[in-house]
Amino acid sequence: MTFSIAATDGTGAFGIAIASSSPAVAARCLHLRAGVGAACSQNVTDPRLGPLLLDAAATGQTADAALASVIAGHRDVAFRQLTLVTGYAQSSVHTGTEALGVTGSAQSPAAVAAGNLLASLDVPEAMVTAFEESSGDLETRLFAALTAGLAAGGEAGPVHSAGLAVVREVPWPETDLRVDWADDDPIGRLGALLQRWLPQRDDYVTRALRPATAPAYGVPGDE
Questions:
Q1: Total domain count, the chain
Q2: N or C: which end of the chain has fewer CB within 10 A?
């Protein structure tokens, strides 16, 4: 019930864009850790697996080894679809035999896309191609990939939720945007949120680290 892309841009940033017919997909499936990587746990989702993948990656294992170690300790792996990116040319993907509907995945040196209950097997490849052909901030490139996945057919059913998050140097996501439910165009709504957020993104990091030098919020009383 989900299609997603996890990626890095070579600057140390990691991010994920994801969409689904289920509510609040990003809250359950999207996992990031600064300096470590990006992991998705989707299809009959077990949210415990994302942190486990990142824990394994943090020990210095390759993406393939980290994924294999988590799979080896998980009895219901046949129901899961997992992706992991830990660096350039370091990604891995698993799709269990009990994953729902049409499933597929695609990889490039910087990204891995995967989906289940897809309208078309072309969706993951379209997402990775769009990511590789895009430029700009990682957030912008991830959103380009998500819209390309939708244009290639997306999920077999209607999409109702979407999310996009990116980590860089600070331990929290610099970007963490979600549309948890919309009857129409959640990906378009996510794009509108992204356009509003990106011009302010770096200011919020400054406010956390150096509040005395932070720019004003531009609200009454804080001009």
A1: 1
A2: C
In a domain, 12, yes or no: yes
- Report DSSP state, residue 155: B
Asked whether the predicted pLDDT for residue 45 surpasses 90, the reply is yes
Give the phi and the psi of residue 159 in degrees, each rounded to 5: -85, 130
Host H or E run for residue 115: strand 111-116
**Residue 223 banded pLDDT, cuts 50, 70, 90:** low
Cβ-Cβ contacts under 8 Å for 75 (sequence gap 6 or more): none
Beta sheet of 175-179, edge-to-edge order: 104-108, 111-116, 2-8, 14-20, 161-167, 175-179
What's the rounded Cα separation, in Å, for the pair 92 and 56?
13
Q: What is the pTM of this model?
A: 0.96
Q: What is the CATH number of the domain that holds 44?
A: 3.60.20.10
Is residue 216 a part of any domain in this protein? no
Q: Identify the residue whose tokens are 């770096």.
A: 202
- Residue 33 covered by a domain: yes
